[in-house]
Structures are given as structure tokens and as C-alpha cells.
Amino acid sequence: MEKQVKEKNELWEWTKALLIAFAIAAVIRYFLFTPIAVDGESMMPTLEDGDRMIVNKIGYKIGEPKRFDIVVFHAPEQKNYIKRVIGLPGDTLEYKDDQLYINGEPIEEPYLDAYKAQITEGTLTEDFTLNDIDVSLDSNTIPEGYIFVMGDNRRYSKDSRHIGLVNQKEIIGNTSLIFWPFSDIKIVK
After folding, report:
1. How many domains does the chain have?
2. Which CATH number belongs to the domain containing residue 147 in this structure?
3. Is residue 17 part of a domain?
4. By residue range, what is the domain housing residue 127?
5. Is 160 a catalytic residue?
6. Which residues form the signal peptide (predicted)?
């Protein structure tokens, strides 16, 4: 009789431990971190199609997006996109002769250097201003609560130039850690 009680207690303890482990995993995945797979080539050469990354979901609950963060957000097509933050609220933004200008100042984009070196004709990023993209803006300025995002593979990226400014409420989180494939584990900038 005592042996049966001991076996039942042991089974109950294992069941509790598993339930607690699953609950903790669910909380972590739903509220803190979640995996995502890169789908497509719009962030090449920084991210490759099929890379698996960890999305930090709490970073923007306590802070704001920073320029050049890689973010995951809900796009209009009921799909999650992964892009780089280029413009922040209050910024004016322009591309001219393959050079990014924010608030009238040229800004370096070192993550594009390898791609720019491969181009034999034209530019990586065509010329534009915010008003070219969204004529409803009162000025060439990103309004509060919005960001401007672009993929690193500028010629083949569907980003703010096509879908418009991204409402910060649509951001799931930021990401910088590739965890799969194992041969490519790294932190990207």
C-alpha cells in the first residue's frame, strides 16, 4: 500500500513539474521571446532566407526603436515582415545618389557596403523623399508613433517605400540573434 502511494506521489510530482515547465515556456514565448524564420531575400546580405532568429518582445514595451534596429512587425498583408529601422518619429528622410540623408545630414550605412561594391549599374537605393512615398504627409517628416523601415536588399525589398510608414503599435519586437543554422549562429548588427 505504501509503495502505491509513493508511486502516485512521484507521478503527481512529475506531472506538476511538466505542467509548470510548459506554463513557463508558454509565458516566455508569448510575452518575452519568440522564434521567427526569415522568409525571402529582402534582408540579404545581413540575413539569409531560412535563418531562424529570436525576437525580443519586451524591448519596445520599456523602450523605443532605435535607428538601424532590425524589427519584426505585422504588415498589411496579414504577414510578419523583418526590416531595418531607417527613420524615427520627427525625422526627415531622403535618398539621393545612393546616400541616406536624415534631417539633412548624410548617414553612413556600413551594412550595405558589401552590396554597393557589387553593383555595376545604377544605385542600390533609388532616389526618394518621404513625400514621394506618402503624399498625405504634411511635411517630409515622420509623424509621432511611426517609423520608416527598409530591407537591406534595397532593389528587392517590399518595405516602407511600398507599404508606407509602420505604426509602432504593429511592432512585435526587435531581433539580432541568429540561432539556426548552427554554422551561422551570430549576433547581427
Report:
1. 1
2. 2.10.109.10
3. no
4. 35-187
5. no
6. none
Question: CA 97, 102, 106 angle in degrees (round to 5)?
Answer: 50
Task: Identify whether the C-beta of residue 96 lies closer than 8 Å to the C-beta of residue 124.
Answer: no
For 130-134, the CB contacts below 8 A with 24+ separation are 130/87, 130/92, 130/93, 130/94, 133/160, 133/161, 133/164, 134/164, 134/165
Q: How many CB atoms sit inside 10 A of residue 100's CB?
A: 18
pLDDT tens readout for residues 86-139: 999 999 999 998 899 999 999 999 888 877 777 778 888 888 888 877 767 777
d(CA 45, CA 157): 12
What gap in Å lies between CA 128 and CA 12, rounded to an integer? 64
What's phi and psi for 155, nearest 5 deg? -75, -20
What spatial distance separates the first Cα and last Cα of the chain, rounded to whole Å?
A: 62
Inside any domain, residue 26: no
8, 16, 42, 139: which is the annotated catalytic residue?
Answer: 42
Catalytically annotated residue among 57, 61, 66, 83: 83
Is 83 among the residues known to form the active site?
yes
pTM, whole model, 2 decimals?
A: 0.80
